[in-house]
Amino acid sequence: MQWNIPSLKDLEHYFWRCTACGTCKTAYDYGPPPKNRPICPAGLEFGFEGYYGSKGKAAFARGINSGELEWDEELLEAVYQCTICAGCQSQCQVDYKPHIPEVFEALRRKAVEDGFGPLPSQKVIAQSLRSYDNPYQGPRRVRTDWTRPFKKENKPIKNILKEPAPVLYFVGCTGAYNVPERVIPQATASLFQKLGVDFGILGENELCCGSTAMRLGDAEAFKRVAEANLETFRKLHQEQGVETIVTACAGCYRAILKDYSLAEEYGTVMAGLQVIHVTQFLYDLYQSGVLKFSEPLPLKVTYHDPCHAGRHLTKFTVDEEGTEMWAGAYIGLNEEDCLYDPPRELLKAIPGVELVEMERIRANSYCCGGGGGVMTGFPDWAQRNAALRIEEGLETGAEHMVSICPFCHFNLNQGSQALGSSMKLYDLIELIDRALPGK
After folding, report:
1. Given the DSSP bridges, would you call strands 315-319 and 329-334 parallel, antiparallel or unpaired?
2. CB 209 within 8 A of CB 145
3. What is the DSSP letter of 21?
């Protein structure tokens, strides 16, 4: 396949647009009353070299691209001190805005190409992808361990390679291999069975989506699994009648919807297939009257917007040719793919649930701290950052926090435990499953 993954040199036109104004360090709400809070986890933890999303890393990009900077241990660590959350992108108001996370990842791709990246602690991920096709060093047979309760209850889940189904549930590596996160695929499959959704899974034949490799700058590892997955999707559509690919993982959703589209053949291969997050899938069923809540859940909760299911999916309009303003001018944005409203509407629809909002939400959401390889490269920082988000949730008076991402689910629960807090992070699908008793 031909991939349009830009190099650092390709993006030079954009990272020189950074004016070092510092707007990217803070999320603003102009009120009334006006409020502001930090938005960059790396800047908050490390200062300039992590910050301000663009100020520090734009300088690194210029130096590496021109040859004035050479890779060493300190520079490499600074480049990987970032969750790639795109909080800075949401705040930036100059022509650098649409390209900031891509520049960060291009820096990492350059580090990998030059034989320096990723960090030593993160290389286990690359090795695991080569050996096991997942970042958790787990053998393929373990990928279906979460399905055991369904077999015991005589409610087996289809192997979609053997039994046709219109819906492929793409589980993702975190839900399959990270034991605390298995509650998410279990709740998802439970709900699908209750609602009569005809679905199947790839089981041991499922591969990593490649999101982790892409965030770490390992483009070759990403392309290998992405191409294999795209070919699998094409065959499933043609031979097994698959029309919809559903995932409960925000990282998988972002990768398949956005990263895979960098392949020139993406439109042809995915013709006739819809990629959808389980939240939107259930929201559509709720709106059509198929999903009806009956079991009250007396909970006061707050909602955390994951980066991969939110601002990472923002579409930007750029005047590439300079026909409207000037070449490379940032014109506007479209948030139609960002999952901001559906999870909130579903929470409000559950009887007994009271939703209270934090100060930093939607495009201004504060990252849990777990993305961009940080949980592997800087686990202590990831936990400290998650604790900051839990503290913000506690400020609302909520008992628990809800999100739609297994990485957020794991890291925020870690942060809560570090605080000694009773606040628990639930995946939305867990609550919906509890609010919909089985037949």
Report:
1. antiparallel
2. no
3. -
**In sequence order, which residues have a C-beta less than 8 Å from that of residue 211 and are 6 or more positions away?**
251, 252, 254, 255, 259, 308
- What does the pLDDT look like over 146-162, one tens digit per residue? 999 999 999 999 999 99
207: left (phi over 0), alpha (psi -120 to 50) or beta: beta
* Distance from C-alpha of 228 to C-alpha of 333, rounded to nearest angstrom: 32
Q: Residue written as tokens 């549930």?
A: 169
Tell me how far apart the alpha carbons of residues 227 and 419 are, in angstroms, rounded to a whole number: 42
- Residue 237 has phi, psi (to 5 degrees) of -70, -45
DSSP category for residue 133 = S
Q: Is the pTM of this model over 0.90?
A: yes
Tally Cβ neighbours within 10 Å of residue 349: 15
Of 91, 21, 176, the residue nearest 365 (C-alpha)? 91
Where are the strands (E) in 56-210, listed by range? 158-159, 167-170, 199-201
Task: Name, in order, each residue with C-beta under 8 angstroms of 122's C-beta and a sequence gap of 6 or more.
Answer: 80, 216, 373, 376, 377
Residue whose pair of structure tokens reads 């997955």 in the numeric block: 229
Tokens coding 383: 């936990």
Structure tokens at 18: 């950074």
Alpha-carbon gap, residue 236 to 168, rounded angstroms: 9
141 exposure class (CB count in 10 Å sphere: 0-12, 13-18, 19+): exposed
Q: Quote the DSSP letter at residue 365.
A: P
The number of residues in the chain equals 439
Q: In this structure, are residues 397 and 300 in contact, taking their beta carbons and an 8 Å threshold?
A: yes
Domains with residue ranges and CATH for the chain: 1-117 (no CATH), 122-287 (3.40.50.1860), 293-439 (3.40.50)
Neighbouring C-alpha atoms within 13 Å toward the C-beta of 342:
23
Instruction: Report residue 138 as tokens.
Output: 């787990």
Q: Which of 368, 303, 307, 370 is nearest to 342 (CA)?
A: 303
- Position 32 confidence tier, pLDDT thresholds 50, 70, 90: confident
DSSP string, 380-420: HHHHHHHHHHHHHHHHTT-SEEEES-HHHHHHHHHHHHHHT
What is the DSSP code (8-state) at residue 242?
-
Percent of the chain with pLDDT over 70: 98
Helix (H) or strand (E) holding 104: helix 100-113
- Tokens 């435990």: give the residue: 417
* Mean pLDDT along residues 334-357: 97
Q: How many CA atoms lie within 13 A of 36 on its CB side?
A: 10
What DSSP character marks residue 427? E
Find out whether 82 and 57 touch, Cβ atoms under 8 Å. yes
